[in-house]
Amino acid sequence: MAKALLNNTEEIMNAVEKQAIIKEYQLDEKDTGSPEVQIAILSKRIADLTEHLKLNTKDHSSRRGLYKMIRRRRGMLTYLKDNDIDRYRSIIDRLGLRG
Q1: Whole-model pTM?
Q2: What is the CATH topology of the domain spanning 31-99?
Q3: What is the distance between the alpha carbons of residues 3 and 38, in angstroms, rounded to a whole number?
Q4: Which residues contact 27 (CB under 8 A, 6 or more apart)?
């Protein structure tokens, strides 16, 4: 079962997609871990997992993982909002969150 999920490129974010997200949201050339990048990657994973759960409604362990990702993203957004409101507003607009 796990091997089948790993081979399904439609559900799992691959390295190419992840690099594209990093390039789009990074603050400078070597940035891979800023809150904006992490929030963007989590948003993609959340969207993918949400689609998976629409088809697999009884997959409770994945649902728990989804809730954990949402909490992590919410925490990073709160951090960004408290420390740099302009960057917070920018990432919210770019990702279409809280709309």
Answers
A1: 0.84
A2: Helix Hairpins (1.10.287)
A3: 26
A4: 34, 36
Cα 70 to the chain's mean position, in Å? 8
* Domain assignments of the chain as residue spans, ordered by start: 31-99
Nearest in space to 94 (alpha carbons), one of 25, 14, 44: 25
pLDDT tens-digit profile, the chain (99 residues): 444 554 555 546 688 999 999 999 999 999 989 999 999 999 999 999 999 999 999 999 999 999 999 999 999 999 999 999 999 999 999 999 974
Q: How far apart are CA 40 and CA 72, in angstroms?
A: 12
For residue 29, count other CB atoms closer than 10 A to its CB: 6
Query: What is the C-alpha separation between 40 and 83, in angstroms, rounded?
Result: 18
